[in-house]
Every structure is written in C-alpha cells, then in structure tokens.
Amino acid sequence: MLMELDHHSGVPVYRQIMEQIRHLITTGRLGAGEQVEAVRDLAHRLRVNPMTVSKAYGYLEAEGLLERRRGVGLFVARIKGDMQEVLKEQILSLGMEKAVRSAVQLGLSEGEAVEFFRKEFCEYSRKYARQR
Predict the structure, then answer these.
(1) Most C-beta atoms within 10 A of its C-beta, which of 31, 59, 64, 123?
(2) Coil, strand or helix at 32
(3) Contacts of 4 (CB under 8 A, 6+ apart)
C-alpha cells in the first residue's frame, strides 16, 4: 500500500491514512477481500504511533470499508454500488474544494476555473489512456 503523509497539511494523520485507503479502495487498487497492511507494519513504515493507524482502521471498519477476521487481520469489505458512488463523491469533493479555494484566492472567475479544469482533465485523460 503506497501512502504518503504530509505533516504540515493541518489534516490529522489518521484522517490522511483514512482518505488514502478510501482512495485505494475506490480506484480498485485495493480490492474486496484483499488484506490491508498490519497496524504495526504500517505504523513502522509511516513512522507514526500504532494507535494512529489503529484509529484510522477502526473508523474505516465502522464505515464498512474494512472487515476484521479474528486471528487473521483486516480485509477490504465488499462495497455495495451506492456506497461506491458516495466514496467517489467524497474523494472528488476533497480535491475540488482545494482547487476551488486556490482559484478564488488567485482571483479567477468561475469560467476561467472551469476552463482550466477542462484543460487539465483532457491532458490527464490522454496520459492515463496511454498508460493503460
């Protein structure tokens, strides 16, 4: 599981872990039934307190994204169709909020911001299509 933390973002570390795992699940890079990294292992790799990882995993389990199998570990739960859409909206909303904030602070009009989004979307879509 590839994860990066930004200790200067103002976002609590456990929330960053949650957001990144949600993203991995939503994009299919972590599939249903796949085991997630053990608490101690992830904490050691990220250099954070194991309780921080445990807290993130606990919240994700409460949301129904992870399921605990006694004596074995935590696994990605099977996501229902409507929950998948909710997750996509949450992830996109977080990114868009940052982009909108930047556009407003830079003094862009709504039209300029939308045009910039379209341009970036097209460029990324082309790059992504070539990678597949």
Answers:
(1) 59
(2) coil
(3) 20
Q: Using an 8 Å Cβ cutoff, are 20 and 11 in contact?
A: no
Q: Are 29 and 36 in contact (CB under 8 A)?
A: no
| Cβ pair 37, 1 in contact under 8 A | yes
Block means of pLDDT (10 residues each) for the chain, length 132 residues?
Answer: 89 95 91 96 96 97 94 92 83 87 94 94 86 72
Domain spans in the chain, listed from the N-terminal domain onward: 13-76, 81-131
Predicted TM-score (pTM) of the model is: 0.72
Query: What kind of architecture, by CATH, is found in domain 13-76?
Result: Orthogonal Bundle (1.10)
